[in-house]
């Protein structure tokens, strides 16, 4: 977990040990691209509400600003411009290395300079490892999601958000312009099948937009709910033993359709969290096998946690600084792993998409 800067929060808002506080302090000077994953709200639950800012701001505005920032970093700090695409015939292991280097969760797969598909960390965990394929011999084309929906530079942020939620996506390739709509299917038509790629948009981009542009209006409302009233977060809480093999954790995440698990010891006490990204970067890219590595060897120990009494806006502050999953603690919780440092129970797991979904509907 990483971020640019951590804002001041209520002392009671975080259940953090000394190790967590040291880690937060070290994040203050870091600038790492945002990432996202984990879905808990079904697409049909979303009733988009148009907000003037989100309606007037375009996808192109976001992409152009990102390009300008990258050009500035290249000039001032000699940092290479991140790649957000890979050719369809490249090996999956090459895609994983690129994702790790860019600290990204997805890459657009191209063929003949056109968008052919999209490949995510989750695609690897569920289409390569679980199907016993090999990343050294499997191509990106074999496991990518083909012909993904795309956003154009002209689309509003509202349009992009609707596409993310209704399609149950976490990432959208961005093309220069969409073609005319097909009268039969209603889908955009592209000259000679071309979709000129301009970038990629993620759910965390949306979270940052909402945090900066829309959240000030929401904070003024007296009825901002606490996370305790947020609902359904306990449905995402699944645990794995720290002595289990990593393969067991990956299989459980796939079965439950989640991106993270709470790790417990033999006394049912929470000792950390493990994610799909941990598996990819600490097992696969290290040349290890999931059956030979234990969960405790790759988990994030002593993770940052949030208490259920904090508000949605406070949770947004935490997640908007690079934290993708937040275990939730409750003093009145009767079930769930015991969190020794706070003396409370872990009762749920909060993700970036949970927050974006809520704020978008306000």
Automatic annotation (TrEMBL):
InterPro entries, A to Z: CBS_dom, CBS_dom_sf, Diverse_CBS-Domain
Keywords: CBS domain
Record-annotated CBS domain positions: 144-219, 233-290, 299-362
Entry superkingdom: Eukaryota
Name recorded for this polypeptide: CBS domain-containing protein
Organism name: Aplanochytrium stocchinoi
């Amino acid at each position: 977990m990483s971020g640019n800067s951590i804002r001041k929060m209520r002392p009671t808002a975080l259940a953090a040990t000394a190790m967590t506080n040291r880690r937060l302090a070290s994040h203050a000077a870091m600038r790492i691209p945002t990432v996202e994953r984990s879905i808990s709200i079904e697409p049909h639950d979303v009733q988009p509400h148009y907000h003037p800012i989100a309606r007037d701001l375009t996808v192109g505005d976001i992409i152009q600003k990102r390009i300008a920032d990258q050009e500035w970093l290249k000039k001032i700090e000699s940092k290479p411009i991140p790649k957000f695409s890979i050719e369809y015939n490249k090996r999956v292991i090459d895609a994983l290395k690129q994702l790790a280097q860019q600290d990204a969760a997805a890459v657009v797969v191209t063929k003949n300079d056109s968008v052919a598909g999209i490949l995510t960390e989750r695609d690897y965990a569920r289409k390569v490892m679980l199907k016993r394929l090999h990343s050294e011999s499997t191509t990106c084309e074999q496991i990518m999601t083909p012909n993904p929906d795309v956003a154009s530079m002209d689309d509003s942020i509202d349009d992009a958000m609707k596409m993310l939620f209704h399609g149950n996506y976490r990432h959208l390739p961005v093309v220069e312009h969409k073609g005319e709509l097909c009268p039969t299917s209603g889908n955009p038509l592209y000259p000679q099948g071309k979709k000129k790629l301009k970038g990629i948009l993620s759910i965390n981009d949306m979270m940052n937009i909402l945090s900066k542009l829309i959240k000030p209006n929401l904070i003024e409302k007296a009825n901002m709910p606490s996370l305790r009233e947020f609902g359904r977060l306990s449905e995402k809480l699944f645990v794995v033993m720290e002595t289990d093999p990593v393969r067991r954790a990956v299989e459980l995440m796939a079965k439950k359709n989640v991106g993270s698990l709470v790790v417990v010891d033999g006394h049912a006490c929470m000792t950390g969290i493990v994610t799909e990204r941990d598996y990819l970067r600490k097992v696969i890219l290290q040349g290890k096998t999931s059956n030979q590595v234990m969960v405790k060897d790759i988990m994030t120990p002593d993770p940052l946690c949030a208490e259920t009494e904090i508000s949605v806006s406070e949770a947004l502050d935490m997640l908007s600084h690079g934290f993708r999953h937040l275990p939730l603690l409750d003093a009145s919780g009767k079930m769930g792993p015991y969190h020794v440092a706070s003396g409370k129970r872990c009762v749920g797991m909060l993700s970036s998409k949970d927050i974006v979904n809520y704020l978008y509907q306000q």
